[in-house]
Amino acid sequence: MSLADCTANLRAPIATRVADKPTVRVHSVEWRKVQNGDPVEINPSVGHGYRVMTVDEWSARWKKNEAWPECLQCGSKNTKEHHFTQTWCRGKKKWESECLCLDCHSFSFRSYCDPDFKTPEEYEKERWQEMVKAEAPKAVAAN
């Protein structure tokens, strides 16, 4: 499923922020290396080892975010998405996306969560708590 699919029927505002480094920890470490001119691990699908890379080389395998290609800092559409996660549970959605602007090197982060979104664990916990609460008066009456 794409981010464009995730943006249909939004029921809450999209949270945004701009940063000078990525949100994802491993990319943050690699970003610092790219900026310092230190070797970065080569993507295993194209080779092995380490190499000093430019920003364009490092981000070459990332795709464009078709739903929001604009950089939140400078407005450029020369961006690449390096981070996208989504969770769907019982028809509710939660997602986050982050893009690198190849012009100003800012990271644009966007996230969304339905107001009534619950993880499967949260849903089950509430269901069990309600069941225990409903059974408590019966147990007291039986004693």
Question: What would your notes on this structure say?
Answer:
The chain has 143 residues and is an alpha+beta fold. It has one domain. The chain is 30% helix and 26% strand. It is built from four helices and six strands, in the order αβαββαβββα. A four-stranded antiparallel beta sheet has the order 1-6-5-4, with no helix packed on it. A two-stranded antiparallel ribbon has the order 2-3. A hairpin with a 5-residue loop joins β5 and β6. The protein is elongated. The N and C termini lie far apart (54 Å).
> What is the molecular shape?
elongated
Biggest sheet strand order reads 1-6-5-4
Helix content: 25-40%
Radius of gyration: 22 Å
Share of β-strand residues: 25-35%
The major pleated sheet works out as: 4 strands, antiparallel
Straight-line distance between termini: 54 Å
Q: Segments where pLDDT lies below 50 for 5+ residues? A: none
User: What structural category arises from helix and sheet content?
Assistant: alpha+beta
Q: How many domains, in number, for the residues?
A: 1
Element-by-element helix/strand order: HEHEEHEEEH
Mean pLDDT: 89
> How many DSSP-defined strands?
6
Counting DSSP H or I runs of 4 or more residues, the number of helices is: 4
Based on the model shown, name its key terms.
143 residues; 6 strands; two-stranded antiparallel ribbon; alpha+beta; elongated; 30% helix; single chain; four-stranded antiparallel beta sheet
Question: What's a quick, concise take on this entry?
Answer:
With 143 residues, this protein is of the alpha+beta class. The chain has one domain (3-115). The chain has four helices and six strands; from the N terminus they run αβαββαβββα.
